[in-house]
Design goal:
Bound molecules: adenosine-5'-diphosphate, magnesium ion
Strand content of chain B: 25-35%
Number of strands of chain A: 0
Largest sheet of chain A: none
CATH topology of chain B: Rossmann fold
Helix content of chain B: 25-40%
Largest sheet of chain B: 6 strands, mixed
Oligomer: heterodimer
Structural class of chain B: alpha/beta
Distance between the termini of chain B: 19 Å
Shape of chain A: globular
Largest interface: A-B, 16 and 26 residues
Number of domains of chain A: 2
């Protein structure tokens, strides 16, 4: 049963042949990507080694403060990542809303997941808490990025429609309803789609990892189903909070549409 | 009905004193870029002045809720706004936005009659011509039945004959219903024929 193959240094080194093959291909094709490929391979390696040792330390010295610290770091990274991914100018107010929805949405879902679904004890047990939270945060980050892009873009593009609706007596909420709904929809769509292909088109990374490290496929599947539903919940909650609060940043207290580029 | 005192908006508008009479037809004329649209938007709080005060029925609009004000003082934008859906959907949209009760098809056909749009309510609104869209959006605000109509060039994409007919009907409708009409128009002829008062704006200032 215990036939887990621990990869040796040389075995891992052998896997880098794929990087060399890729470098070779882009070189021949004249695609100027060598630098990025090298940097991302090195970053991936160093980041994972670092994470591995940090996790090793935390697993051996489990303490709620460590767990909380890691969660905070993950949240901060995820929030900055959202700002970076959205290729639009974001106002300070909307950035605050993004941070607020990410933090509250993911933490609420994680707590529910940890305390009710898997009933973990102690609750901060890092071996469970950290990877599960990481997955919820990561997926929520992807979802909310799409939602933010869609909302901000939609409001700028439909400026005239929104203004005309306001002139007819619409509240900001009515005037932006369609855009807000579409933003929410585009935020949750990838998660819904990924559930459809689950287990057939691809084996999710977490499940693959568990199976490779010796868990029974059934255990792996149980966790995968639970985590998928957790992800769905977290993405929905985060995006719902975001769109509910986000559209309001485009209006002042007199229900006037305020867009940044009013300098023409 | 409206009184503006020392109103300034950016460097676009500068108005010392302006009265707009209740139950009258007021036309605003002036070159393009002179500030006509901006003036209308100040009246329904789509914009707020940087300085000065605007009174509506004796109350400063600064102290009024924007949404409530806009439901009494409805503005038709220069570019007609058409939603996806049928002509009926588009007419009813105004009532939904201003949270008024929806009405029967008979009333909707009456409205289409007023704006000279002889179409079926089921028809897709997107397919209408520019002029027809403009008449549809005019019908939509007539249906809301506000106290004040702010119309921004309501006939700009109509030909002269249709324009005359529509404005004529619009004016008689608002007169008989005791409404206040403020209309931006590019046509001095329209202004002379129908207006009780004409306001001319030049580079943000009232000249008459
Ligand atoms: N949001 C805005 N910000 C700054 N300037 C504007 C804005 N909207 C319009 N303007 C400028 O204000 C002036 C008056 O515009 P407008 O009221 O639309 O004129 P009109 O309706 O008489 O053609 C124009 O010079 C226009 O370029
Ligand atoms: Mg104008």
């Amino acid at each position: 049963m215990n036939s887990i193959i621990n990869l040796g240094l040389w075995q891992i080194a052998a896997a880098y042949i794929f990087v060399i093959i890729l470098l070779f291909i882009v070189k021949i094709k004249g695609i100027p990507r060598e630098k990025e490929i090298l940097i991302s391979s090195i970053r991936m390696t160093l980041q994972l080694i670092l994470t591995g040792y940090i996790l090793l330390y935390i697993f051996d010295n489990s303490h709620p403060l460590y767990t909380i610290l890691i969660i905070v770091i993950m949240e901060v990274f995820a929030i900055y990542n959202v700002f970076k991914r959205v290729k639009l100018d974001l106002s300070m107010n909307i950035k605050k809303i993004i941070a607020l929805s990410m933090a509250s949405g993911t933490i609420l879902s994680v707590l529910y997941f940890i305390l009710v679904v898997i009933n973990l004890s102690p609750w901060y047990e890092p071996r469970y808490f950290i990877p599960l939270t990481g997955m919820l945060i990561g997926n929520s980050m992807t979802g909310i990025s799409l939602g933010v892009s869609r909302l901000v873009d939609g409001i700028h593009k439909e400026k005239h429609l929104i203004e005309s609706a306001l002139m007819l007596g619409a509240t900001p909420k009515m005037a932006t309803k369609e855009i807000v709904d579409k933003a929410f929809d585009s935020a949750i769509l990838p998660t819904i789609n990924s559930m459809v292909g689950m287990g057939i088109v691809f084996l999710p990374g977490m499940m693959t990892g568990q199976i490779l490290s010796g868990a029974s496929p059934i255990t792996a599947i149980e966790y995968q189903i639970a985590i998928m539903l957790g992800i769905l919940g977290s993405v929905s909650l985060t995006s719902a909070i975001f769109v509910q609060l986000g559209y309001k940043t485009f209006f002042n207290e007199d229900s006037q549409l305020i867009l940044e580029e009013e300098s023409n | 009905m409206f009184f503006l005192k020392d109103v300034k908006y950016k460097s676009i508008l500068d108005i010392k004193n302006l009265h707009i009479m209740k139950n009258k037809i007021t036309c605003i004329v002036g070159e393009s870029g002179s500030g006509k649209t901006t003036l209308l938007k100040l009246l329904n709080k789509m914009l707020s002045p940087d300085e000065g005060k605007i009174f509506y029925n004796g109350r400063s609009i600064r102290d009024m809720n924007s949404i409530e004000l806009r439901r009494k003082v409805v503005m038709l934008s220069q570019v007609p706004l058409i939603f996806s859906g049928s002509i009926r959907d588009n007419l009813l949209m105004g009532l939904k936005f201003s949270e008024k009760p929806l009405v029967s098809d008979t009333i909707l056909y009456n409205i289409l009659e007023i704006v000279n749009l002889h179409k079926d309510l089921e028809e897709t609104a997107d397919k209408l011509s520019g002029g027809e869209k403009q008449r549809l959006s005019l019908g939509r605000i007539l249906l809301i039945d506000p106290d004040v109509y702010l119309l921004d060039e309501p006939s700009s994409s109509l030909d002269e004959d249709t324009e005359e007919v529509i404005i004529e009907k619009l004016v008689s409708h608002t007169k008989s219903a005791n409404k206040t009409l403020v209309m931006v128009t590019h046509s001095k002829r329209i202004a002379k024929t129908f207006a009780d008062n004409i306001i001319e704006i030049k580079q943000g200032k009232i000249v008459i």
